[in-house]
Amino acid sequence: MTRTFWTLWTLVTVGLAGTACDRTTKNQATGGTTAPVHFASVPARPQLMFVSVANDDTFHRVEVAALQNPSAGSYVTNLSCLRVYFGGDIGICLTSTTDSSATKWWAQLFDTQFHSLERFPLSGEPSRVRVSPDGRLAAATVFESGHSYAEHGFSTRTTLYDLTARTSLGDLEQFVTKRDGRVIHAKDFNFWGVTFTRDGNTFYATLDTAGVSYLVRGDAGARTLEVLRPNVECPSLSPDNTRVAFKKRVGARSLGWWQIAVLNLNTTGETILNNETRSVDDQVEWLDDARVVYHLTNGTTAADLWALRADNSAPPERLLASAYSPAVIR
Q1: What is the tens place of the pLDDT at every residue in 242-276?
Q2: Residue 233 — very low, low, confident or very high, per pLDDT cuts 50/70/90?
Q3: Residue 8 φ/ψ, nearest 5 degrees
Q4: Is the pLDDT confidence value at 80 over 60?
């Protein structure tokens, strides 16, 4: 998520900088364009929630579309977010406010009617966010300095929240981390990319230390983390909780190039989804048990959402133009 994410974040926070980000779609019959359809009410679940980066008055706004056909139209909410996610009956929006002195960052909770609830201060620029399927827990990751994991002194902070009690559970560096049964800790620990299981307590995340990114399994109640395996970044659990999709670094760390991979948690078998040949610098989301969705930047839009089958049976398909930060609401 390093330089690609920073480029996208710059676009969505300080403007399009000359990039044409128009969600109008091409009419194949006439050669003209068709304006996006905006619904008067929220489509029924299952839904796809996302942040618009279209070059119109929906820029930054959270939208909700029907999962079966998101390009058919969407409901535009009153929320403006840099990252968004939803689980159970509660969502979390990573956003900012600016006054004469400084920009402040927030994790803003909202309900099914998109009404603002509690908000928590963040210590840096938003990066990743997730909510557990039952809506009991959430996690937010921020950049605290620099704009790339590879840069000297770069730091991320990932904080867990108890959404029932509306309190912070602290950042993951405060948890006890074990590897092969032994407690480990280092000053260069960085955590990001949390994904929650269905039990409302267990989660997976990335721990980066000494130049290696590890998959860790966490216990929110016990405040513990267990290192499982190396070379896993930004894990995302499948709806059936049997697989983890993640971005796998290709080549040298300095290259900043990733491919999507899927890890079977039962067999530990790993599959590279090489039908997607572009670098995917994102924490993917599962559309269903068969497909993942992720954003890619390109020369004509700030970001588009793409879908890819997890069995490597088909090439990627563009799901939605001028959109990012997808969240599937089941």
Answers
A1: 999 999 999 888 888 999 999 999 999 999 999 99
A2: very high
A3: -65, -45
A4: yes
Q: Is 10 exposed, middle or buried (0-12, 13-18, 19+ CB in 10 A)?
A: middle
Cis peptide before 70 (omega within 30 of 0): no
CB atoms within 10 A of CB 166: 12
The pTM score is 0.90
Quote the DSSP letter at residue 129. E
Strand partners, 122: 105
Of residues 16 and 109, more confidently modeled: 109
Cβ(6)–Cβ(148) below 8 Å = yes
Contact 77, 91 (CB under 8 A): no
CB-based contact 43:71 (threshold 8 Å) = no
Closest to 310 measured CA to CA, from 257, 232, 224, 237: 237
**Model pLDDT, residue 12:** 44
CA distance 310 to 326: 17
Separation CA 141–CA 156 (nearest Å)? 7
CA atoms within 13 A on the CB side of 46: 12
Going from the C-alpha of 5 to that of each of 106, 119, 149, 314, the distances in angstroms are: 18, 24, 11, 26
- Residue 6 — very low, low, confident or very high, per pLDDT cuts 50/70/90? very low
> What's the CA gap between 86 and 102, in Å, rounded?
28
Give the strand pairing for 167-171 and 176-179. Answer: unpaired
Residue type, 319: L
**pLDDT at residue number 154:** 67
Closest residue by Cα to residue 144 from 122, 160, 171, 161? 122
In this structure, what token pair is assigned to residue 119?
């908000």
Instruction: At 231, list the tokens.
Output: 């070379």
Alpha helices by DSSP H, listed for 15-151, are none
Provide the CB-side half-sphere exposure for 291 (13 A, CA): 17
Determine contact, residues 291/244, Cβ cutoff 8 Å: no
Residue corresponding to tokens 């059936």: 240
Q: How far apart are CA 164 and CA 135, in angstroms?
A: 8
